[in-house]
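so im writing up the methods section and need the Putative membrane protein record in one place, dumping it here so i stop losing it
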Amino acid sequence: MFIIWNVYSYKKLIFTTIHTWLKRYVYFLGLSGVALIVAWLPGVISSLVNGTTLSLIGVYTTNITYVLDMGIVSVLCFVTMYMLRKGEPLGTLILACILKLCICVGIMIIPQTICQIASGTEIPLPALITKGLSFVILGGFAFYFNHKMYRELEPKMVGIENIIKD
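--- predicted struct ---
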């Protein structure tokens, strides 16, 4: 019974901490989900309309990037948004994973773009903005939100360690 109470209070602790920033996290997740769709959907639609392959294949990305971003990560952002609004603790855990994913992507886009430009690959300015700069900006916001989330959780976690030990 004591263990069940600890798990419940731990879940309540995480949700209470997240709740103070809930609107910001929800906006971030919504923006991230929409940004992923906006970044890749125009290329997919134009290739479907023209009956050709994607123009940047082999130069910038692969088909799997489109599938992962639009079919999995953007959907996961919207599902996590829903879970956070409903107060589900799993939403908080998925949020932490999404924030770390966005941070990694935001960091890796910079050397990727530098290497592509150094190799002589011509990247149109709209593609550079939608597929480069937007992900770097999202990565910066993810870093900020990740830092805020763990900074708010840390002092409260010190007190919970003593409860768990007993």
